[in-house]
Each structure stands twice: as structure tokens, then as C-alpha cells.
Amino acid sequence: MKLRTTSFLCLFALLLTATPLPGRAADEQQLLREAREIVARLDKRLKEELQKVLKEEGTVQAVETCHLKAPDIVKDAWRNGWEVRRTSLKVRNLEDAPDKWEYKVLKELDAKNEADAPDSELEHWEVVTVDGQKRFRYMKAIIAKQVCTRCHGKHIHKEVASQLDSLYPFDQARGFEAGDLRGAYSLSKPLSP
Ligand code: HEC
Predict the structure, then answer these.
(1) Which atom belonging to ligand 1 lies closest to the Cα atom of 66?
(2) What residue spans of the chain are helical by DSSP H?
(3) Domains plus CATH for the chain?
(4) Is residue 153's pLDDT more than 80?
(5) 86-108 pLDDT, tens per residue?
(6) How far is the CA of 66 from the centre of ligand 1 (A)?
(7) What is the pLDDT of residue 7?
């Protein structure tokens, strides 16, 4: 009988340790899920919008549409305390320039992508303290496709290039090939104390 009680207790203890930890770890998993969902939705929306304007208006006009609409589409993804932006090691819109943390993560994502890491590894999350406040930060790589090289590639059509020159005199976001790390989505949410 005594032996039975002991094994029961052991089993109980084992179950306790096997149960996922409540609190922080579980919160982080939930935040990670939310971040991935926001990115998936935003990525889909941007790509659909791009396909549509390329088809209906052509590349030159699409530059202006991207210029006017992309920032609003990204802003529209903000919800439930999440701040959402795009960033890159070579930016077109100067407002997308990375902060120190984003720069470090972009470098890591770039190295992983160059080493042919699978898409599932091209993300990074971390709890960081910013101005005394803890935040959950998440980044997901954006890989260039062939269609992106029309406006971000090495050989950009003359008319497209001059449209880009006039809208973005400090444009660095050129010279990419399909498969390169074009940039990343960067999300951040304050953690409740
Ligand atoms: C029709 C031209 C055009 C095409 C095609 C295009 N882009 Fe862009 N891209 C732009 C413009 C213009 C901006 C700047 C938008 C702004 O002012 O915020 C931009 C900005 C970006 C940014 C934000 C970072 C930065 O440099 O400011 C990323 C990331 C990006 N593009 C990725 C892509 C990807 C990935 C593709 C292909 C799926 C793509 N783009 C195709 C014109 C284009």
C-alpha cells in the first residue's frame, strides 16, 4: 500500500513537471502566435495589392501606388497593442531604417538566408527592455522574388528608375536578386507589468 502511494505521488509530480509552465512561457507562445498571424495577413495583403496594381497599371505607375499606399497598409496592421513596420539593411523609405536591435537581427537573418536556412528559421523573437519597459519583439524575413526585382533589382527599367529617383533620392533598395533578404517585418508589443 505504501509503495502504491509513493508511486502515485511520483506520477503526480511527473505530471506537474510535464504540464506546460503557466505564466511567462505560455504568454510568450501566445504573443508569438499573434505576431505570426499579423505578419501572414499583412504579407498576403501587400502581395495581393502589388499583383493587382502591376497588372492594372504597369510598373511605373505601381511605384507611385506603392509610395502612396504601402505605409498605410502597414499601419493598418497595427492592433491589440502591436506596432508593425517593415525594415531593411538597404532601405528605400528612410522611415524604414532599422534601429540598433533590428539591425542586429537583420544581419543574423541575412546570414541564415545566405546559408540556405529553411523559411521556418528566418524569424527571431525576444523580450527586450526599452526605456524601462519590457516589450516582446518579433522579426520575420522578407525574401525577394523575381517580381520584386522590377523595382528592387540590378537592372531596373529606365522609366521605373527615374520615377524611383524622383520619389526617393536616397534610395538604397536596389541591386537585389530573387532569393536575397530584401528586409523584414518588425513587430513590437509592450508586456503588461
Ligand atoms: C512597382 C515597384 C515595386 C515592386 C515591384 C516592389 N516594390 Fe518594394 N517598394 C517599392 C516602393 C516604392 C517602396 C517604398 C514604399 C514606401 O514609401 O514606404 C518599397 C518598399 C519596400 C520595403 C520596405 C523597406 C524599404 O526599403 O523602405 C520592402 C521590405 C519591400 N519593398 C519589399 C518588396 C518585395 C518583397 C517585393 C516583391 C514581392 C517588392 N518590394 C516589390 C516599390 C516596389
Answers:
(1) 12
(2) 2-18, 24-57, 59-75, 100-114, 149-152, 158-167
(3) 23-190 (3.30.450)
(4) yes
(5) 999 999 999 999 999 999 999 99
(6) 7
(7) 56
